Amino acid sequence: MAEIIDTRTEPERAIERACAVLAEGEPVAIPTETVYGLAADATNPDAISRIYEMKGRPRFNPLISHVSDMAMAEAHVTFDSLSRRLAEAFWPGPLTLILPQRTTSTVHALASAGLDTLGIRMPDGFSRRVIARFGRPLAAPSANTSGKISPTSAAHVEADLGPRLKLILDAGSAEIGLESTIIKVEDGALRLLRPGGLDVFEIERLTGLTVSRPQSAGATIEAPGMLASHYAPGAAVRLDAADVRPGEALIRFGNASLPGEEHAAIVLDLSPAGSLREAAANLFDYMKRADASGSATIAFGPIPSEGLGEAILDRLQRAAAPRD
Ligand code: TXA
Ligand code: MG
């Protein structure tokens, strides 16, 4: 079983152990502000292979390289002026930029799945301290079995990958709870490859530009992680429910009761106060809890589509998509 170190009580030991395990070429589960990541040395092909193995992830799916500062980022990618502005405004934070990889970059082609671009992000939270000490970028997808719900706590990681992992750093619940927003700049235009923890409106407000959305969810393999069926709980998912059928688990928003909810197996409210930020932080944990209730179906009440609601609904549509 994985060793678990609490970063709030033993920060120094957590960093030292993490760097030692990473140096052996083994993945470590690290807390970022978005979700827990399964991190490995992005310059070491064996270490990256272990990530793919542990997750059972298709190899064509590129990973995000996580850096601790701009100097580390500049060593691996080139910034156009617009991307630089975004990095300066939103890093460290829940934003991933797709940028041309430098020919001198030591990030291994296995991490970028052979593309000539790199997904790069400076995370906030404890993970950044680990990267700074390690001194090299860490490739890190979410620390869950491929296709399953992303982990927002060390307990989530342990329940899923615990037996296969050496080390989990526990920093408590992830503050944001949704993966990063992925943006690609092309010819001075901003393209959204994945909605996430940074509200797209913030990007539009900063730049004065409109961010273009993908044609339809899952239609593009441009961010190849964007497979239609993803974030799947064990139970079936029914969206925008107008009522609750007997035995269903209900996840609702904003204290909005639904007819029939007295017959639900469990009722969870993502944010009784109606905060999308709070709802994002609770989403994956509540999906896991609803799943654990044993209901065959999780019904979701209506959730607003503006702001972070866009990313929340994106994840729910993937959770509800037909599975193969
Ligand atoms: O918040 C997050 O982004 C979390 C934490 C751990 O940082 N990481 C995460 O990684 O969500 P992952 O591997 O689950 O998702 C990475 C996404 C995938 O959809 C992948 O296709 C896309 O980033 N991606 C990575 N590199 C890319 C590239 N060069 N071009 C296009 N998409 C890329
Ligand atoms: Mg993931």
UniProtKB/TrEMBL annotation:
PROSITE patterns documented for this protein: YRDC
Residue ranges of every copy of the YrdC-like domain listed in the record: 12-198
Record field: catalytic activity: L-threonine + hydrogencarbonate + ATP = L-threonylcarbamoyladenylate + diphosphate + H2O
Enzyme Commission numbers on file: 2.7.7.87
UniProt subcellular location: Cytoplasm
A biological process from GO: tRNA processing
Uppermost EC category: transferase
GO molecular function, one term: L-threonylcarbamoyladenylate synthase
First-listed, main subcellular location of the protein, grouped into a coarse class: cytoplasm
UniProt: L-threonine binding residues: 34, 66, 121, 140, 142, 180
Name assigned to this protein: Threonylcarbamoyl-AMP synthase
Species this protein is from: Ensifer canadensis
